[in-house]
């Protein structure tokens, strides 16, 4: 078997050294009723070629985004990842390295994390960032728990235009803790409506920008109202490319920013693994969950990097830890860092403006279809479209035409009649004018 | 000057000397090259990406724009390639050498896994495209679920948790939901003293208080103490099996029965599944919920710290409470249940979208490559390698508990008494010998713990070489050559780092200095 | 001014109704380099034995339980910028907080300097 180096001779010699006759002697502590006599009922080992064939067959039953006109978003976005990224993350020294608990032999991972933390702090407009979390949605849940620690109050208010799955995840994360979450319906999301809900028990208000439906707001006034009550503003960003063109949460007065970093360096991969970002103010650093990397020197005075502030974490603080999180997004974090470095300031801003320009282009074309309306006043690279028919059905028919036309809102709001005819359409730099015209043409046919 | 923890505190001027005594102008030493931060090499003008020109358009951002400089550093493609290649060469990795890290299972990461994970049909699919367009993806998830259930002998599996710790949370939430449904307000979770830190941290997130159960002289859960601690207030026990001392809990079935009789549930931390995969099914031991670390037992890459994946197998009793989403067989193919509807008892959703598909692909490729026969061999070889290491070192290092061990063996620092060398010092000297240190100071039940797990991926030559290196180091320590240890590592890209400074004065990012 | 000691290696120095509390030389030596001290808030009330502070070294965090109950009237502001004070001067400049004693009789349950010295000698 190609992954198992021990030969029969090796095994014999080793058993002899140990002082037993057969391998099952080493399993003598297992209750006899529990030690299996036969192999479990699953196929036997396969050559690599056969494994390759099996997976190709499964892959062939899917419709990859790159083979069609593609407009799906809703929290996961298709951007072009430069080839350099994948080549670098596949280097064995990155791919097969462990968590950098031994910093002397992990400076590759640690220095890249330090660069990552700087990039995240910069794009969110905040002072510090951690070394990443599982994804944006779990980071959102963690932010609410962090806001409780920081404010010493328990009531978190969630904007109705947060990604609905982020709302569910936050609800779940706080289900058995002391937190109280006030969850607003989709209609309650405007700054003034949220300000009305703040009281002296509020720990934080959680908003998303651009929000789930694509709308952009300035939350500065909300931040001020919260700070007056010694509460925190948490801003969620599901499309980090927007930070290249839209005012940063930090500039609006956010206290905690959480984001989904998948757009940079990481493909769609059917929903995971992704990259959760969490950034905050320096003074809140000790309430922050997750791993964090810091600068120091070695015994010769040379600069180096180490994991630090570990006493917040589970392996030391155990039940008093800020979170139970043990991993970060590791390789996905590195992919983010490398892509961001390739982009740089110029490339990142250009990428953002290009996304927006194309979205504007498509929104204009769609607005020209009779019976179809773009609902957003403003948006970045994603907007909500109202069709004169069931959006989920429209999407199925478009798929038959090799167009993945967007995400029908009924997929996420199955019980809301207002959402039945609505579609979320995303446009990134990967969309061509030909793609747009195909979509518009097809929609025109469908709604006739 | 060293502080109390053997960490350097005095900053001496950097000696630009290689072990051979040669100084260089660049500070580089042959193939070992130093590398500054991207912020010190790059600038805000350079970029390594070409994008099409912007068309003429009217902004629809509502005036909420970002006009100030962000400050991101950019580099051209060749510079990026060089920068990260140089950084990579400062890392130890499985591809380079043995990691004896107990409880981490640092096995080989097969490259067919990487290849199939990158097939466009698996990598370039959106989680919310129509279900009819991703039947192959759902098939894959279903097959992985089948392998996990069959290997563990459990009827159900939750596939969405994003890491082992996330899986622990899933299991405990299912338990809490089951108890809430019964109308029982149990507030305590029992865990052994040797439990991994995620266990109590997770219990706290579910509103539970943790009560510690001591270990007996054989390094296993003290059964009478456990039975005494059980009662109507105990929601669950969290056990790792084999435990964190590398030992199989002989009384496991009796433990499970006692917990169930008291109305509680049995959560099993599956971190050490590598020792028993294909040989023992946790379902046969009375487990109610167990997370599986795909990045441990099933070879998905550690990637410098992640991503992980932690699917959770569940018993009949807990299956109804499993989180959404999950895959089911519908009339016309696979479907996905994404919402908690009607009378469903799911405790909710733990993550946006569906879980760690990328890791699912890799884990399934590993399972299919090994097959049921190969997986049983994985367990056997991992246990064989660990026992061989134990047998080869127990005369000079102090074994904490009598063997046989499972896939990892535990030593403590008694053999270093009087040498002036601590477990930390010993570990740092291993770096100079070309090894990543073993797991140190965990579990907490012995002093200066050293937990060694070679895994099944190591050849006999590799293990013999490792044993030889450790025997050499022990001899040196006992000969009083403590300088070899207290100043180690001498040969790594950096010497010992000042972690006190990093914690007292946290500098967590680069800042522009004017 | 009298100083008392607890078995958990805290000292309390009383002057009238106020006590100044910190950890002993023995404790700071066992903990290693202190990197952070989480002190209580001024104005909060605690009972004897309540968790009142946390001392962090690089690899460990230790809870401090107040040896006497009362209201916290002051905290050592210098600890935030210089936690190393606890290592260098644990029984003087490295104090953690001052408390207004709610029950002076609780001091009777603590040790005096001689008894504490005997106690730590017995530990080694």
In brief:
The complex is a heterotrimer of chains A (about 450), B (about 525) and C (about 120). Chain A is an alpha/beta fold and about 450 residues long.
Explain this structure.
- The complex is a heterotrimer of chains A (448), B (514) and C (124).
- By secondary structure, chain A is of the alpha/beta class.
- Chain A contains 14 helices and 15 strands.
- Chain A has two domains: 119 residues, Aspartate Aminotransferase, domain 1 (Alpha-Beta Complex), CATH 3.90.1150; 257 residues, Aspartate Aminotransferase, domain 2, CATH 3.40.640.
- Chain A has a seven-stranded mixed sheet with strand order 2-8-7-6-5-3-4, sandwiched between helices. In chain A, strands 11-12-15-14 form a four-stranded antiparallel sheet.
- In chain A, helix 5 runs parallel beside helix 12, helix 8 runs parallel beside helix 9 and helix 12 packs across helix 14.
- In chain A, 64% of the residues are buried.
- Chain B has 514 residues and is an alpha/beta fold.
- In chain B, the strands form three sheets. In chain B, strands 1-7-6-5-4-2-3 form a seven-stranded mixed sheet, with helices on both faces. Chain B has a four-stranded antiparallel sheet with strand order 10-11-13-12, covered by helices on one side. In chain B, strands 8-9 form a two-stranded antiparallel ribbon.
- In chain B, a hairpin with a 2-residue loop joins strand 8 and strand 9.
- The radius of gyration of chain B is 26 Å and the shape is globular.
- About 2% of the residues of chain B have low confidence.
- With 124 residues, chain C is an alpha+beta fold.
- Chain C has a single domain, classed as RNA polymerase II/Efflux pump adaptor protein, barrel-sandwich hybrid domain (OB fold (Dihydrolipoamide Acetyltransferase, E2P), Beta Barrel).
- In chain C, the strands form two sheets. In chain C, strands 1-2-3-9-8-5 form a six-stranded antiparallel sheet. In chain C, strands 4-6-7 form a three-stranded antiparallel sheet.
- In chain C, a hairpin with a 4-residue loop joins strand 1 and strand 2.
- The radius of gyration of chain C is 13 Å and the shape is globular.
- The model of chain C has no long low-confidence stretch (mean pLDDT 92).
């Amino acid at each position: 078997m190609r992954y198992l180096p021990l030969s029969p001779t090796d095994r014999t010699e080793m058993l002899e050294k140990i002082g037993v006759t057969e391998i099952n002697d080493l399993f003598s502590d297992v209750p006899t009723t529990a030690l299996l006599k036969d192999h479990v009922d699953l196929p036997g080992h396969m050559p690599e070629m056969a494994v390759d064939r099996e997976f190709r067959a499964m892959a062939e039953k899917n419709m990859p985004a790159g083979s069609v006109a593609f407009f799906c978003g809703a929290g996961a976005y298709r951007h072009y990842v430069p080839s350099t990224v994948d080549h670098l993350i596949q280097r064995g020294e990155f791919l097969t390295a462990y968590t950098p608990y031994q910093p002397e032999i992990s400076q590759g991972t640690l220095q890249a994390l330090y660069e990552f933390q700087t990039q995240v702090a910069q794009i969110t407009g905040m002072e510090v960032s951690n070394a990443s979390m599982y994804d944006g949605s779990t980071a959102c849940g963690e932010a609410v728990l962090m806001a409780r620690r920081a404010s010493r109050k328990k009531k978190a208010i969630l904007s109705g235009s947060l990604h609905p799955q982020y709302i569910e995840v936050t609800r779940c994360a706080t289900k058995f803790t002391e937190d109280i979450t006030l969850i607003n319906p989709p209609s309650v999301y405007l700054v003034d409506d949220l300000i009305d809900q703040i009281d002296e028990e509020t720990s934080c208000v959680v908003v998303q920008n651009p929000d789930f439906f694509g709308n952009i707001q300035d939350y500065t006034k909300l931040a001020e109202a919260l700070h007056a009550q010694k509460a925190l503003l948490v801003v969620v960003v599901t499309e980090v490319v927007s930070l290249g063109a839209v005012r940063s949460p930090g500039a609006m007065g956010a206290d905690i920013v959480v984001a989904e970093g998948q757009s940079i360096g990481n493909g769609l991969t059917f929903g995971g693994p992704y990259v959760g970002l969490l950034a905050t103010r320096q003074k809140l650093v000790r309430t922050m969950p997750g791993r964090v990397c810091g600068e120091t020197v070695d015994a010769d005075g040379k600069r180096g990097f180490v994991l630090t502030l570990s006493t917040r974490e589970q392996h030391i603080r155990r039940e008093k830890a800020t979170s139970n999180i043990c991993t970060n997004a590791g390789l996905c974090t590195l992919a983010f860092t490398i892509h961001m470095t390739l982009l740089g300031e110029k490339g990142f801003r250009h990428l953002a403006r290009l996304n927006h320009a194309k979205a504007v282009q498509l929104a204009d074309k769609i607005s020209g279809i009779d019976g179809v309306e773009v609902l957003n006043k403003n948006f970045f690279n994603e907007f909500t479209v109202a069709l004169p028919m069931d959006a989920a059905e429209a999407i199925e028919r478009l798929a038959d035409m090799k167009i993945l036309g967007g995400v029908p809102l009924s997929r996420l709001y199955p019980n809301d009649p207002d959402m039945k005819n609505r579609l979320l359409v995303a446009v990134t730099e990967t969309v061509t004018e030909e793609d747009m015209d195909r979509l518009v043409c097809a929609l025109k046919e469908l709604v006739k | 000057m060293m502080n109390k923890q053997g960490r350097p505190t005095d900053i001496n001027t950097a000696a630009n000397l290689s072990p051979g005594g040669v100084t260089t102008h660049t500070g580089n030493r042959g193939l070992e090259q130093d590398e500054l931060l991207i912020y010190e090499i790059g600038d805000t003008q350079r970029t390594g990406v070409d994008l099409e020109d912007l068309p003429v358009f009217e902004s629809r951002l509502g005036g909420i724009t970002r006009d100030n400089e962000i400050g991101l550093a950019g580099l051209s493609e060749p510079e990026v390639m060089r920068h990260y290649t140089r950084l990579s060469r400062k890392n130890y990795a499985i591809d380079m050498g043995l990691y004896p890290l107990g409880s981490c299972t640092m096995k080989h990461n097969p490259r067919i896994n990487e290849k199939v994970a990158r097939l466009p049909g698996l990598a370039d699919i959106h989680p919310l495209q129509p279900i009819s367009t991703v039947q192959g993806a759902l098939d894959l998830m279903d097959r992985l679920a089948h392998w996990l259930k069959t290997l563990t002998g459990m009827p159900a599996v939750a596939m969405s948790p994003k890491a082992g710790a996330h899986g622990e949370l899933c299991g405990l939430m299912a338990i809490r939901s089951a108890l809430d449904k019964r109308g029982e307000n149990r507030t305590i979770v029992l865990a052994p003293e040797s439990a991994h830190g995620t266990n109590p941290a997770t219990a706290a997130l579910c509103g539970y208080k943790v009560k510690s159960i001591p270990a007996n002289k054989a390094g296993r859960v003290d059964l009478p103490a456990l039975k005494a601690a059980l009662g109507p207030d105990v929601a669950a026990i969290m056990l790792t099996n084999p435990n964190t001392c590398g030992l199989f809990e002989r009384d496991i079935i009796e433990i499970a029965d006692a917990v169930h009789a008291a109305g509680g549930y049995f959560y099993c931390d599956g971190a050490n599944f590598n020792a028993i995969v294909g040989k023992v099914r946790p379902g046969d031991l009375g487990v109610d919920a167990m997370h599986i670390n795909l990045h441990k037992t099933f070879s998905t890459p550690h990637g410098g710290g992640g991503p992980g994946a932690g699917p959770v197998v569940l018993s009949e009793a807990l299956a109804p409470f499993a989180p959404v989403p999950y895959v089911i067989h519908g009339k016309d193919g696979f479907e996905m249940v994404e919402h908690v509807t009607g009378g469903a008892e799911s405790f909710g959703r733990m993550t946006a979208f569906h879980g760690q598909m990328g890791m699912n692909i890799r884990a399934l490729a590993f399972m299919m490559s090994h097959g049921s026969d190969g997986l049983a061999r994985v367990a056997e070889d991992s246990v064989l390698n660990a026992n061989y290491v134990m047998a080869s070192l127990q005369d000079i290092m102090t074994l904490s508990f009598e063997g046989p061990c499972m896939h990892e063996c535990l030593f403590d620092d008694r053999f270093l008494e009087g040498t002036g060398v601590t477990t930390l010092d010993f570990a740092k000297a291993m770096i100079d010998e070309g090894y990543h240190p073993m797991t140190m100071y965990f579990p907490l039940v012995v002093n200066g713990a050293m937990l060694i797990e070679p895994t099944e991926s190591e050849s006999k030559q590799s293990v013999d070489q490792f044993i030889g290196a450790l025997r050499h180091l022990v001899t040196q320590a006992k000969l009083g050559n403590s300088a070899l240890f207290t100043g180690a590592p001498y040969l790594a890209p950096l010497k010992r780092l000042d972690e006190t400074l990093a914690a007292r004065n946290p500098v967590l990012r680069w800042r522009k200095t004017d | 001014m009298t100083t008392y000691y607890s078995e958990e290696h805290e000292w309390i120095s009383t002057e009238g109704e106020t006590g100044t509390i910190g950890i002993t030389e023995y404790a700071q030596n066992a903990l290693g380099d202190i990197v952070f001290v989480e002190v209580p808030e001024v104005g909060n009330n605690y009972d004897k034995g309540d968790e009142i502070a946390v001392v962090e070294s690089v690899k460990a965090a230790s809870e401090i339980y107040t040896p006497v109950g009362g209201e916290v009237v002051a905290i050592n502001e210098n600890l935030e910028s210089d936690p190393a004070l606890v290592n260098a001067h644990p029984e003087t400049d490295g104090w953690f907080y001052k408390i207004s004693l709610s029950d002076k009789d609780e001091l009777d349950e603590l040790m005096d300097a001689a008894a504490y010295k005997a106690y730590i000698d017995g530990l080694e």
